[in-house]
C-alpha cells in the first residue's frame, strides 16, 4: 500500500469517486490507499458536497508552504516522547480529528480535543495549544468553551497559577451519563404525548413505542457505563 502525499491524479480520482457516490472505502481500495487517507482528504477540503481536486491540491501546497515559512531555518520536528515517529503521530492526530469532525464537532474543537487526548499528561495550557496547533488564542478559547460546555474537558490551575485544560479518565463516563439523562428526557416527553393525542391512536402508539425504545436504550447506556467504568482507569503495563 503506497504512502506519501496524494498526487494530483489521485485527487482527481477521489473527486470522481465522490461525485459518483462511492464509499470512501471503495475509493481508497481503487487507489490502494488507507480509507482514513481518503476520508481525511475529503473532509479537510470541502467535504463530500464541496470537494474539488484542483482546490484540494492548491490548499495542500499552501499548507506545505505555510509550514515551511513557520519553521525556523534548520529546525527539526520536536522530539516525540517514547520514541514515537513524529510524522505518524501527526497523521494519526489528523485522522482522529477527522473522525470527530464527522461525528459533528467543529474542526477546531476536534483538533483541540485530540491534542489533549494524545498528550500523555492529558492536559495542556492555552499557550501550548496555540503553539501546537498554530492558531490564534481566540480560536482556542472558542473551542475550549464548547468542549467545556459539553463536559468533555475541565479547567484547573497548576502550581504556577496557569489555567490548564484537562481530559481525565472519567470524562467519557460522565459524557455517557449525560447522554443517558438526555435520552431519558426524550422518552418522558414522548410518553406525555400519548394522553394528549389519545391512547391507541396511531400517533400516540408511535410516541409510546418511541418512549419504550428510548427508555430501553437509556437504561442500557447507564448499565453498560457503570459496568465498564473501570476500563477508563486502566493504567499502562509497567515494563521491566
TrEMBL record:
Provide the HTH marR-type domain boundaries. 104-160
- Domain of life the protein comes from: Bacteria
Give the Transposase IS30-like HTH domain ranges.
5-45
Region Disordered, residue ranges: 58-88
Q: What is this protein called?
A: Helix-turn-helix domain-containing protein
| Membrane-spanning residues | none
Amino acid at each position: 500500500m503506497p504512502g506519501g502525499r496524494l498526487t494530483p491524479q489521485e485527487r482527481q480520482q477521489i473527486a470522481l469517486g465522490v461525485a459518483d457516490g462511492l464509499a470512501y472505502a471503495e475509493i481508497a481500495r481503487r487507489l490502494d490507499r488507507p480509507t482514513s487517507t481518503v476520508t481525511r482528504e475529503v473532509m479537510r477540503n470541502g467535504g463530500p458536497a464541496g470537494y474539488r481536486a484542483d482546490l484540494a491540491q492548491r490548499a495542500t501546497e499552501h499548507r506545505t508552504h505555510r509550514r515551511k515559512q513557520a519553521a525556523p531555518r534548520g529546525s527539526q520536528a520536536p522530539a516525540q516522547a517514547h520514541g514515537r515517529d513524529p510524522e505518524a503521530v501527526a497523521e494519526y492526530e489528523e485522522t482522529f480529528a477527522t473522525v470527530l469532525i464527522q461525528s459533528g464537532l467543529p474542526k477546531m474543537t476536534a483538533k483541540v480535543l485530540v491534542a489533549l487526548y494524545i498528550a500523555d499528561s492529558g492536559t495542556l495550557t492555552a499557550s501550548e495549544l496555540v503553539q501546537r496547533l498554530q492558531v490564534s488564542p481566540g480560536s482556542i478559547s472558542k473551542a475550549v468553551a464548547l468542549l467545556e460546555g459539553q463536559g468533555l474537558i475541565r479547567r484547573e490551575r497548576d502550581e504556577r497559577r496557569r489555567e490548564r485544560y484537562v481530559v481525565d479518565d472519567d470524562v467519557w463516563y460522565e459524557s455517557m451519563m449525560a447522554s443517558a439523562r438526555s435520552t431519558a428526557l426524550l422518552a418522558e416527553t414522548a410518553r406525555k404525548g400519548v394522553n394528549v393525542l389519545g391512547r391507541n391512536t396511531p400517533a400516540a402508539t408511535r410516541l409510546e413505542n418511541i418512549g419504550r425504545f428510548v427508555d430501553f436504550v437509556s437504561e442500557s447506556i447507564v448499565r453498560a457505563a457503570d459496568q465498564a467504568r473501570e476500563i477508563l482507569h486502566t493504567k499502562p503495563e509497567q515494563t521491566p
